[in-house]
Amino acid sequence: MAVDLTTDRRLHHARRAHLTPIPHKWPEDAVPFNINGYWYPAAYTTAGGSGRARTVHFYTAEDFMGRTWCHFREPPPDIRRLDEQGRRRPVI
């Protein structure tokens, strides 16, 4: 996400030369998770409709959680870890 540091508003257009990256630190419980070549700081999973499908919930640079549906031939270890984190989350 690109933000104007003087107004805190998101930028829709910017020249590369005018951008300064600011390091972002992922939350402690984030699990690096690759979806279609992009790395996400995943927080937990919820049921996705079958034993091999999950909805992966991930942190964003803004104040909301993103999510995407994924299907696996066999859920890998990082998904099993996210499953455990999802079971420990309080129900709101």
What's the main sheet like? 4 strands, antiparallel
How many helices? The count is 1
Task: Assign an overall shape.
Answer: elongated
Q: Which structural category do the helix and sheet elements fall into?
A: alpha+beta
Mean of the pLDDT scores? 83
Strand content: 25-35%
Rounded Rg: 16 Å
Share of helix, binned: 10-25%
User: How many extended strands?
Assistant: 4
Q: In terms of per-residue confidence, which ranges show pLDDT below 50 for 5 or more consecutive residues?
A: none
What is the distance, rounded to the nearest whole angstrom, between the alpha carbons of the first and last residues?
A: 28 Å
Spatial strand arrangement across the major sheet: 1-2-3-4
Strand and helix order: EEEEH
Oligomer status: single chain
What does this structure look like?
With 92 residues, the chain is α+β, with helices and mostly antiparallel strands. It contains one helix and four strands; from the N terminus they run E-E-E-E-H. The protein has one helix at residues 77-88, and strands at residues 31-35, 38-47, 53-59, 65-71. The chain has a four-stranded antiparallel sheet. Strand 3 (53-59) and strand 4 (65-71) form a beta hairpin. It is elongated and about 45 Å long. The mean pLDDT is 83.
Features:
4-stranded antiparallel beta sheet; 92 residues; 1 helix; 13% helix; 32% strand; alpha+beta; elongated
SSE blueprint and pairings:
Elements: E1 31-35, E2 38-47, E3 53-59, E4 65-71, H1 77-88
Short description:
The protein is of the alpha+beta class and 92 residues long.
